[in-house]
Amino acid sequence: MFRAGLLLLLVAGLSSCVHSSSELSGFLVYGHEARTIQLCGHSEIFWLTTTPQQRRQLASAVQKLSQAPYQKLYIELSGTIGKDASGEFSREYDGTVHMTKIKRISANIPDSCLGDQPTP
Fold it and tell me: Is the pTM of this model over 0.90?
């Protein structure tokens, strides 16, 4: 009985460490030493962590869509939000968004996202 209770406690503790991916959208700023996202309706700015392949996809999309360096673009992605800030640049932000999949990137920001932005 003790072993079953200990096993249940261990499994419950491990499940709280697993992060499930969420559908996220917001403002992407991507460039040299910049890879951030501000989620629609939130004032926090997160460092975006990606795989090398995702970085190439982002760079290509940004090059095609941007008319100016560090232009805000709209992005929809799958990912998880974390508080870890272990990288040199990520420490300067409110946390991290770990991207698992790029869904859409656009220069057109939907009104639904613009209208949700908090006032400074």
Answer: no
**Burial profile 50-84: b = 16 or more Cβ within 10 angstroms, e = fewer:** beeebeeebeebbeebbeeeeebbbbbbebbbeee
Q: What is the pLDDT of residues 80-109, one digit of tens each?
A: 998 776 666 667 888 999 999 999 999 999
Domain 20-114 sits in CATH at 2.40.50
Structure tokens at 3: 């072993």
